Amino acid sequence: MKQILLITDGCSNVGESPVMAAAHALQEGITVNVVGVVDYGTIGELGSREIADIAKAGGGISRIVGTPQLAQTMQMMTRKTVVQTIQLAVNKEVKKILGEGSLEELPPLQRSQVVTVVDELTETSDLRIALLIDTSASMKPKLSAVEDAIRDLALSLEAREGKSEIAVFHFPGRLSDGADLDMDWTNDVSGVRSLFSRLRMKGATPTGPAIFRVLEHYRYDTLDGYRDRRPAEDQGEGEGMIGGYVV
Amino acid sequence: MSSNPPYPAGTVVAGKWRGNRYVVERLLGRGANGTVYLVKREGRREWYALKVGYDTLDLQSEINVLTSLQSCRKRNEHRARRENPLSSFLLEADDFVDGNNVPFYVMRYVQGKPLHLFLSKNGPSWLGLVGLKLLNNIRKLHECGFVFGDLKPENVMVSDYGEAELIDFGGASPIGRSVKQFTEWHDRGFWNAGSRTGDEGYDLFAFAILCLRLLNEQGLKTAATQLPQTRNVEELLRLARTLPDKKLASWLILAIKGGFSGSEQAMQTWKEHIYTPRTAKQENIATPRWLKSAFALSLFVLAITMFWLFRL
Ligand SMILES: Nc1ncnc2c1ncn2[C@@H]1O[C@H](COP(=O)(O)OP(=O)(O)O)[C@@H](O)[C@H]1O
Ligand SMILES: [Mg+2]
Questions:
Q1: Given the CA of residue B167, which atom of ligand 1 is nearest to it?
Q2: Subunit contact B178:A87, Cβ cutoff 8 A
Q3: Is B156 on the interface with A (CB under 8 A)?
Q4: At the N or C end, where does chain A have fewer CB atoms within 10 A?
């Protein structure tokens, strides 16, 4: 399972549309969640609409919160998205067998069995989350909170039984319009320390190009033969994953 | 959905699959996963608690935990040759047809107060006894292969006579799995004191925080609001050491450091060092002098009676 978690505090203003970039992500089997962080005032109508649209295009969830709720929100979103992805795949299987897809329609016994499978897979399936952090000037006072929230998320992921990895990107990047990689795929919580300490903050917010950069990174890994996974486009991944469970 | 107004008194919650009907008496409480009502089954006299879920998957997950706990307890009680009908916590699960098919389940009504309110009303001297009962419940849960996860005073109900019951199993997960639901202050990870993998030590840590919170909430708050980098276990240990009851302090320190082998040992230690001193005092109490003299007197009376009896 693949996710992108975008953390930003405003509108993009450079490069391709982030909504389109998110749509591309979804097409490649990557869900995009967005957290808007604001401590004072509001994020503005334009900003909040963009945040909602990116998540919608990316098949994910969006929330606007202050820094105190950041860690909890990131975990809630990650978990919810995992559950939804699995539920979707499981529902497809269930429909084949029972003719009924939605959990609400199932009689108690079947429902209990399906949820057991969903819970099992939620805990054991492999998971990769790319964190994409907006480090434009306005984000500066929030970055230490962001880092703590990332560490907290990593701690929760570490407790899962399935292999869980995170990577961290920030944007704008130094050279390109896209994003720079701060930490490559890891499951080591202790790696999440002083990620952004050497950053020089710039003003532009190229959210779209940054998402595309993360997609490239995901793709690059797949080409590299990362544990001979099937290509991301293979939508059957979910089904293959649960094939052994629902009989 | 969580913002829906609660059902008014008199609402009949009828099950879609099993057809049982429950009459709402009043709201008991709302939480993250659902709304809980005090109900009576139509035509019966017993009270039950009925939880209406916000999300079918989350509620079913909770029901699944309760179901496997139920069968585990039944096995254990059968082994102990003790048939206790009160032990059935989960009665049934169903969907409320007229309420938009929302899922609900029916459980035993646990009369009482949440732990923090009980202690603030009755005084901290109850902690030894209530803590022991709570630890025993946690131990039984662990025996069945589950950790509670979200252990906090709000999720413990205490009857007027100090019986402690865990409610809200929404955070419970099989031992070895990641903890599903937790509350910052009570979470081992929050204090940089260990992982979020559900093991017996996780619940014992949360139990220790629960004690600290009940005895020195302000101190805990100060420690908790420190920056995440500086927030650490040392602060908690320091708080524990300031408690006047030194035996309790040592127990808490051990639990915070993850020093117990499991909840069995933690409970036995609590029983011996924090709970027992009171009963020990009673056992060792010498027979009071007045009773001794009363006894002597009655002997004397008996002797005189006999004397008169035999004389006649
Ligand atoms: N079995 C019960 N008996 C009495 N009161 C209960 C019972 N279960 C829950 N409650 C009350 O309802 C509140 C919310 O229930 P809870 O199960 O904690 O919901 P959530 O999982 O949403 O947090 C509790 O805090 C408590 O006051
Ligand atoms: Mg609760």
A1: 8
A2: no
A3: no
A4: C
Higher pLDDT, B287 or A163: A163
- Angle at Cα B54 formed by Cα B51 and Cα A162, nearest 5°? 105
Residue A24 belongs to domain with CATH number? 3.40.50.410
Find the CATH number of the domain harbouring B86: 3.30.200.20
Q: For the whole model, what pTM was predicted?
A: 0.85
Q: Do A213 and A176 form a contact (C-beta atoms < 8 A)?
A: yes
In this predicted model, what pLDDT tens digit does every residue of B155-172 receive, in sequence order?
999 999 999 999 999 999
Could you list the residue range(s) of the whole structural domain that residue A37 is in?
A: 2-71+129-235
Within a domain: B76: yes
What is the length of chain B? 312
**Helix or strand or coil: residue A54?**
helix
From CA A172, how far away is CA A14, in angstroms rounded? 10
Residue B187's CB: how many other CB atoms inside 10 A? 25
* pLDDT band at residue A147 using 50, 70 and 90 as cut-offs: very high
Check pLDDT > 80 for residue A107: yes
Q: Does residue A89 lie in a domain region?
A: no
Residue B109 in contact with ligand 1 by CB distance below 6 A: yes
CATH number at residue B215: 1.10.510.10
B161 and B65 in a common domain: no
ipTM for this prediction: 0.83
Give the pLDDT mean for A136-143: 88
Number of domain units in chain B: 2
Asked if residue B139 and residue B86 are part of one domain, the reply reads: no
Tokens of B234: 């040392």
Pair B56, B154 in one domain: no
From A179's Cα to the closest Cα of chain B, the distance in A is 27
C-alpha B154 – ligand 2 centre gap (Å): 7
Does one domain contain both B102 and B244?
A: no
Ligand nearest to the CA of B2: 1
